[in-house]
Amino acid sequence: MRRQRGPAIDSVLMMVLDGLVLVRILALSRPGEMSRAHAEAVADGGLADIISETGDRLTAPGNFRGHRDRKTRSEALNAMATCLALGAHQPGGITWAGHHWCVAAHGNCPHRSNQTA
Ligand SMILES: [Zn+2]
Questions:
Q1: Which range is least confidently modeled, 71-80, 92-101, 106-115?
Q2: How far is the CA of 83 from the centre of ligand 1 (A)?
Q3: Above 50 in pLDDT, residue 1?
Q4: Nearest to 110 by CA among 23, 6, 8
Q5: How many Å lie between the centroid of ligand 1 and the Cα of residue 61?
Q6: Residue 62, Cβ neighbours under 10 Å: how many?
Q7: What is the H or E stretch that residue 86 is in?
């Protein structure tokens, strides 16, 4: 995964988030799951709002120290993972915090195996 400039996130959290995104990408391949996830994201304010809000919470130093905060962190990670998985299905995929997810070949993809000619 090629690193790019962007929000800083704890490396362990990023590893967890990356795994969650891959699970969500697989889940979105089930019939009806893509439209359900889109509807849920729209109901929660839309993908951009969720990504900016949860991204801010995930990257703010000192967040999520107590037991209750850990539940909030889990909810934020799951919301972010769903949004990034939805973004991965868009043309060109999605890049956040220096990480890139995509499900189809496209130009300028940081993952060489996905690059088109
Ligand atoms: Zn890509």
A1: 106-115
A2: 16
A3: no
A4: 6
A5: 29
A6: 6
A7: helix 67-88
How do residues 24-82 score in pLDDT, each as one tens digit?
999 999 999 998 888 888 887 888 888 888 888 888 777 777 777 888 888 888 999 99
Radius of gyration of the chain (CA): 14
Q: How far is 81 from 107, CA to CA, in rounded Å?
A: 23
- Tokens 């990023």 found at: 14
Q: Which two tokens stand for residue 92?
A: 């060109």
List residues, by chain if needed, whose CB lies under 5 Å from ion ligand 1. 93, 102, 109, 114
Separation CA 74–CA 98 (nearest Å): 21
Helix (H, G, I), strand (E, B) or coil at 22: helix
Here the tokens at position 68 are 């209750």
C-alpha span between 20 and 23 (Å, rounded): 5
Distance 111 CA to ligand 1 centre (A): 6
Angle, helices 67-88 vs 11-27, to 10°: value is: 50
